[in-house]
Amino acid sequence: MKTTLRPLVAALAAAAAFLALPAHAQGAQEPIQPIAPAVVKNPAMVELGKKLWFDPRLSKSGFISCNSCHNLSMGGSDNLKTSIGHNWQEGPINSPTVLNSSMNVAQFWDGRAGNLKEQAGGPIANPGEMAFTHELAVDMLNSIPGYQAEFKKVFSKQKIDIDQVTDAIAAFEETLVTPNSRFDKWLKGDANAITKTELEGYKLFRDSGCVACHNGAAVGGNSFQRMGLVEAYKTSNPAEGRAAVTGKDADRFNFKVPTLRNVELTYPYFHDGAADTLGQAVDTMGRVQLGKNFTKDENAKIVAFLKTLTGDQPQIGMPVLPPSSDATPRPTPFDKKK
Ligand code: HEC
Ligand code: HEC
């Protein structure tokens, strides 16, 4: 009991310390900061990463790209309870948004990848996702003259390797930030950027203690926390959370706190995709994390606030991918039953 309550006590202490601030200091002291626009360091690498992001030839089927499950037209997610992988396999867990993922303390719900580069190799070789191997992916790229030339330009190496692939994808992902939300404008001092109801929602969100876990520029993403701190969260999804990485019992059911940026676009919610609507997600969070039953009106206000976190979506021209050559291995869209 003591251990489960410790984060909550810390959360309440943080909230209390925050509330003790004089009112005039709060503008500068909000627990959420605006997102800064992306700084593109290497445009050629970002452009290459964008091509790889959209290239379904990195999958065994020749049909699934990163964008299949992290659709940049849909908030960087697939809006499915769990994703569809190779051979129409039912995925084990909800696909998180890739928007602002460069701000995450680590990648995946359980944080098993340290950063975007480390993460990017995962899905290509995951049999339930793109079902390819790094070797086959690299062979495929090396067989395409257009890619050979572009990789050489960016990396000045003779041959394409998986390291270059993941570097380029990560460089592209770093540009997928969403500044300029209405809430950011409010944070920067534009009092009219959000409505009275939305502001009331923010105050409920802040003063109820949601900000103990959802804070910083990404409004989350920077810690692992127990799902079901005050009340057990019931799910049939077998995911263990952080314990799968650390092996520690204390980390069971700790998940990376998701970013709430663009949360209006990234339904359904939670690692098991069990909450279809924001209203449901807010209701569950109130109960299981804070022991609070929000009224209908409070719930609606918090939802209204959360919708002010939708920022400028990355403006992406669809890349034209270099064509396969005669030597490019052909995809296997269907695993035929023997
Ligand atoms: C078949 C669907 C699917 C495909 C294809 C896919 N992903 Fe994912 N992605 C997921 C799921 C599901 C997760 C969460 C897995 C977990 O946490 O265990 C995830 C997690 C991530 C994350 C971590 C985000 C976070 O907040 O933790 C990043 C970044 C990411 N994917 C990038 C990529 C890239 C890059 C590609 C292409 C090389 C790709 N994904 C292809 C479904 C997919
Ligand atoms: C103790 C830490 C903690 C507190 C307090 C907390 N959350 Fe969460 N929140 C989490 C974690 C962890 C998850 C992911 C849980 C999961 O998917 O199993 C989450 C998920 C969410 C999601 C779903 C996001 C997504 O993309 O799936 C929303 C929305 C949300 N929280 C809103 C809130 C609101 C509103 C409050 C206050 C009423 C709140 N949270 C309080 C830790 C917290």
TrEMBL record:
InterPro entries: Cyt_c-like_dom, Cyt_c-like_dom_sf, Cytochrome_c_Peroxidase/MauG, Di-haem_cyt_c_peroxidsae, MauG/Cytc_peroxidase. It is found in: Periplasm. One of its GO terms (molecular function) is cytochrome-c peroxidase activity. Binds 2 heme groups. The keyword Signal applies. Binds 2 heme groups per subunit. One of its GO terms (cellular component) is periplasmic space. Residues 1-25 form the signal peptide. Residues 44-152, 196-310 form the Cytochrome c domain. Residues 314-338 are annotated as: Disordered. Keywords: Electron transport, Heme, Iron, Metal-binding, Oxidoreductase, Periplasm, Peroxidase, Signal, Transport. Heme c 1 binds at residues 66, 69-70, 86. Its cofactor is heme. Heme c 2 binds at residues 210, 213-214, 285. Coiled coil: none annotated. The keyword Transcription regulation does not apply. This is Cytochrome C biogenesis protein CcsA. The lineage of its organism: Bacteria, Pseudomonadati, Pseudomonadota, Betaproteobacteria, Burkholderiales.
